[in-house]
Amino acid sequence: MPCLIAAPASGSGKTLVSLALAALAHRRGLSLQTFKVGPDYLDPQLLSLASGRACRNLDALLCGGPWLQRSFQRHGAQADLCLVEGVMGLFDGKGPSTEGSSAHVASLLQLPIVLVVEASRQAGSLAALVRGFRDHDPSLTIAGVVLNGVGSPRHEALLREALASIAMPVLGALPRHTSLELPSRHLGLLPAHELEDVQLRLEAWATLAEAHLDLDQLWPLLSAPAPGEAAPAPAAPANDPVPVALASDAAFHFRYPEAIELLEQNGLIVEPWSPLADEPLPQGCHGVILPGGYPELHADTLTASSRSLAALRQARQMGLPIYAECGGLLLLGKGLEDQDGVLHPMAGLLPFQARRGSLSLGYRQASPRCDGLVVRQGETLWGHEFHRWQLDQGNTGEAALWDLEGWGSPARSEGWGDGQLHASWLHLHWGGCPAIPERFAASARLAAPLGR
User: Which residues, 6 or more positions from 443, have their beta carbon under 8 angstroms from its beta carbon?
Assistant: First the structure.
């Protein structure tokens, strides 16, 4: 059974340890399936890069326990090795609860935990910290600790002796060094495609694992899970496949691998489309999907992409289905402010301008106000919100797409929707709401193809 790599808090080094093990497995010619707890998009990009296989998210809130179990067994069993990287601190979930946390997922999947502890400013106090995490939930098993930020051999000896006093195995000790830092920006780590010297980093991560991790103890904790029940083969689409455009470039890249898989299972041909390159929508496409990303970092280029923006307006006029989440929503507004406060015109399909503001973060329960392109009144969906740009004119009235509620966040109405449009801040994982791609595909098949 593989392990779940967790930590007391964000920034402790669990991503670094996960990347080091994934890069080492790849160097040794072994396939390793990575998973990431929670709704994150950026860590999975790095884990996919290091392992050579698409990382899968395990989010109990967005997808539910049964789906999570099936995904873990189905994908994990197809590789030689497997690991799960946790999210934030071990017990950090929705609000103050553990729901959706790394501990929650470890309990659902019965995984042992490797705790990565940032120990650069600790000695004997480390034992109290680790003891607290070990004893907080006795149903969990902490297999051992990886020390991060170790300053010297003497410091390492102090930490090892402290953990020996509570009979906690040490599974590695990473040195304190600036070369091991992972660059980040306002929503997390840099996307994988923006990292410089990628191959050098992969080699450095693999070498780090060999030099500083106890592989005799860790490697058995990467064993792949046993396969679960075989998933039923998806039914063949009743109609001929039709193409849809998926925005895919440096501005729009926040998506889960299941999105394309589910669209294809529903009889769609997914064609990548780059607004940043000012590409027209593919001729003959029947719909448009705009995922999240960083359009605010590319607002000047997007405003100059006149062909792409005109194609979006044409798609709307022709009644093609358009699905937009978070960053994709921003492309549809009247204007988007960049990081320097300069406002740039966008497609103008929705009546707002977006500017940098306060952080919106957390899980949201969404209740649609009416039937729309992909949602129906009376349903309840779980999504995740994470953005620093805000709208000067949000759709908060009776015409809003849905009502949102979340811990610590005032209840509000949000989003735009009708029979051909779904536009919202909310990220959804379609593994937890498979009706979304089904309904989008049904609408796409009814739409007249663009440019014909």
Answer: 287, 321, 373, 374, 419, 420
